[in-house]
Design a protein that fits this description.
Two copies of one chain form a homodimer. With 541 residues, the first copy, chain A, is of the alpha/beta class. The first copy, chain A, is built from 18 helices and 13 strands. The first copy, chain A, has a single domain, classed as Alpha-Beta Complex (Amidase signature (AS) enzymes), CATH 3.90.1300. In chain A, a hairpin with a 3-residue loop joins strand 4 and strand 5. Chains A, B: GO terms for molecular function: amidase activity.
Chain lengths: 541, 541
């Protein structure tokens, strides 16, 4: 009987079932992964043709759409190329959960066929674009285990709102990606599919909770993936893997109908869906496409905000925050934000150095809101799955979290409203178009060591949109410095000491975070594009 | 010592203070109010000049703005005329709380002067328009008692967000208007200022909680006032007084910084501010003006929705709901909605008869959300003010309301999200541009008898915008019919039996309610304008 299977049996069956969905001719020799950095293996492993390497390596999402549109590529060959590359990524980093490559290739073939039959029908905005999804999105017939044994072998019967919209816009969905048990930590490790690895350095965390997406996209097994973010779950794996990722304001991208580790009536910090990609413009294009598609028709909780298509003409004014006053950034992280600020200044941007108000208070309220039910709902799910906690979940110490009362919640709510007004005044008072700051004090860390999340979580608390822009990698010059740099607290010092050598952090990506005003996601897309072009695409950049 | 004063002493002082702010030459003889209908008294009492009668009687908010713009009227004479007429209204209906006529006239004089000095400076969109405000809005130096002794003689030190925005847009504020003790009932009666009367019939309720606004506007002592609505508090007094009133979607009109009878962290049903006026187009103009003014700069909780300025070209499709399945409309209310539906059909509108889903469940969740804290916060305010409950509050029986737990709240929240999705599908599935339905089963009732609020409250629960359009008054032909008409429940029958004769309800206004899709306030403004023109301004209408 199924009920008697242990979590290990269930995991073995799930993984075997998944692995059987990779064609034999796409299997690679494990010997190919010799070093800790496996980013080059897809190109060299012999599974991909030259043309498939070109398709997957030298195109972002907009290029793919344009080249299918111009009939340089067929939708089918694009789908095939990304399925193969995703299969290679899976074998190297364990980034996938549910695979539906054959259905995707068949859908792409159908899109090509329909186009051939009706050549005058206008193509949909995402015609033929392969898009990968975090495991929490429901697709009929597939599990959404979200890293929990309890949800294994309970296939979804309905689409979540967003995949339905993406399909209606012409996209090709082909795989779902791995997450942490509970989706509450930054290490994508669980008892169903195991741990996702970081292809830049297999000894560092891939981040989480959208860690499978981060790893897959870094491997160019996907040009555009969808993650979710309640405290940094899009941005942390974007940082760890050196890709772009955007946490939209809440209510803009449809979120309804996902598998969740929370009580369905849970109030508080809003979890949102958003894009992860190999280019900034792909994130912005995703936002534009969704906001132009009346997404509220797919999700009754979506706002009726529209993409305006208007550009800001004034000279941008950007605040820069070097640290959040709670945790000291690692030396390479300090370098990344300092270099970014300098390049923006050199390009004529009006850069003003700022300190963030009330961060500790905001962090306290946010943690309070996350744990309103004492994390009882998720603990019940773990118990129901008869599985142990993975290491990163153990470190949270769920059992020690107290339950809140309704008055506690109202006090947290009042505190949040007050600080939202404080930041509102801070933003308008400083006349900002954007803020840049580190996305975390750390880079990707060794497993289960991901530290403070105040740098990302603050923007969930405030509901401001925030985008990750990669800017480089740890260098030999990012030497370990004295402990006297980290003076905020014992916790600060403990985290800071994790940066013990450039060797441990070899090839770890660096990024900055660009933050916009709440619900001004369109304005943020514009200014993040400008920042990216100055940092990554200018001749002096 | 002030602390030893009884609530009666405090009330007497507050009322005397208020009455002293009415110039002696604006005082009328109480003998003028001979019948129950005092709507004609301002015109006949001799206080207003011919020109002041013309200014106040034959102009809506847009006319006033246009005639000041064209220098047909000065801002000062407009302010003076409305202050005088508001003073007359106050003497007949007790609709005002705080009076600041002299400051308003002085501000209008300044606006005229600045314009004369700088004739080329573009006028602000509300230049010179007098706007009245519900008592809950804070104006520095004035009390916001919201009908509670506790708040008397505690003048505000800061503006609420909306009056600040209105002043920045050029408006002239001149008075605040009466509400029920607690703002939680539909009878604007309290121990500070007493009861506001309905000028259409002094023996019927003026409604609430924005009852002072309703009465003042019906007297044409204001062309545009601002109310607030959490269950019908804009719409009920609009119905009772035969004026237009709109409950916007939440987050569109700034609400921050008001006096409140609730815990500042209270979650649940959103209370909103919105317009009340003598014309439909004034309500729409208000929404357009606010949505075009980046209102989020004034209130950090405002959405960043913009007025689009685009018209819908398709033939409108309007659902009509004759009753809500819980409460049977009075005979004149039935006539009003039936006649409205017929006129729309006759004008070529695609009208489809519908029944609302899950109303009882929605009502249950809404009441649960209103009473999360067992109404303890407001009971504490009453106790702190050492005042008794007024009759309409007594009937609520606050002490009997149980407190909810956090899990209770999460269950209510989950239920609300589910029903919001049900209505979303209902709306899209029926391909609606709007719904029309009665605003209540009753017309204005005798004092303290206002009955079911399910017809208005449902749209707060769903957060859909809803507008009141007056269509006529009770007629002799609206005869009392048999009790067999009201069969839903004992409560239904009890309410229905209140309609005991056309004489009791003489001159009671009739209205319909026009509902739009959540956050489609602009689309609703357009279609409500069309409905109003068909019902009230067409040759056959």
């Amino acid at each position: 009987m199924a009920g008697d299977k242990t979590y290990i049996d269930i995991s073995r069956a799930k993984c075997e079932q998944r692995d059987r969905l990779i064609r034999d001719e796409w299997k690679i020799s494990q010997k190919l992964a010799l070093g800790n950095n496996v980013l080059e293996v897809p190109r060299t492993c012999g599974v991909l043709s030259e043309r498939e390497i070109n398709i997957t390596e030298y195109n972002d999402a907009l290029d793919i759409i344009e080249r299918i549109r111009q009939q340089v590529y067929t939708a089918e060959e694009v789908a095939l190329a990304f399925c193969k590359r995703a299969a290679i990524a899976q074998q190297l980093t364990n980034c996938l959960t549910e695979i539906f490559f054959e259905e995707a290739i068949e859908r792409a073939r159908q899109l090509d066929k329909e186009r051939a039959v009706n050549p005058s029908t206008p193509l949909k905005p995402l015609h033929g674009l392969p898009i990968s999804l975090k495991d929490s999105f429901n697709i009929p017939g597939l599990d959404s285990t979200i890293g929990m044994t309890y949800f294994a072998n309970k296939p979804a019967t309905e689409y979540s709102a967003l995949p339905k919209l993406l399909l209606d816009l012409g996209a090709v969905l082909y795989c779902k990606t791995n997450v942490p048990q509970t989706m509450m930590t930054a290490d994508s490790d669980n008892n169903v599919f195991g741990r996702t690895l970081n292809p830049s350095n297999l000894k560092l965390t891939a981040g989480g909770s959208s860690g499978g997406e981060g790893s897959l996209i870094a491997m160019k097994g996907s040009v555009l993936g969808i993650g979710t973010d309640i405290a940094g779950s899009i941005r942390i794996p974007s940082v760890c893997n050196g890709i772009y990722g955007a946490r939209p304001s809440s209510g803009i991208v449809p979120f309804a109908g996902q598998q969740s580790p929370e009580d369905p009536g849970m109030p508080g910090i809003e979890v949102v869906a958003g894009p992860m990609a190999i280019s900034m413009r792909a994130c912005s294009f995703f936002m534009k496409t969704i906001m132009s598609a009346e997404p509220w028709r797919y999700d009754s909780s979506c706002l009726h905000l529209r993409w305006q298509g208007q550009l800001n003409s004034r000279k941008p004014r950007i605040g820069v925050v070097f640290d959040d006053g709670l945790y000291t950034p690692f030396p390479p992280v300090r370098r990344a934000i300092q270099e970014a600020a300098q390049k923006l200044r050199d390009s004529g941007v009006d850069v003003v150095e700022l300190r963030l108000p009330n961060v500790a208070e905001a962090v306290g309220i946010t943690y309070g809101m996350f744990a309103l039910d004492g994390c009882q709902f998720v603990q019940d799910l773990i118990k129901a799955g008869k599985e142990p906690e993975v290491e990163s979940v153990k470190r949270v110490n769920l059992a020690a979290i107290p339950k809140s009362s309704l008055q506690d919640y109202m006090d947290l709510n009042a505190g949040r409203r007050k600080l939202q007004a404080v930041y509102h005044d801070f933003w308008l008072g400083n006349n900002l178009d954007a803020l840049i700051l580190p996305p975390a004090p750390q880079t990707a860390t060794p497993f289960d060591e991901w530290g403070p999340i105040s740098y990302t979580m603050l923007w969930n608390f405030l509901d401001y949109p925030a985008t990750i822009i990669p800017t480089g990698r740890v260098q030999e010059s990012d030497v370990v410095d004295g402990e006297e740099s980290a003076l905020y607290s014992e916790a600060d010092l403990k985290n800071y000491k994790l940066y013990d050598s450039t060797e441990t952090y070899r090839d770890a990506p660096l990024s900055i975070q660009v933050v916009g005003m709440r619900q001004e996601d369109e304005a943020l897309a514009e200014i993040a594009g400008l920042v990216d072009s100055i940092l990554n695409h200018s001749e002096t950049g």
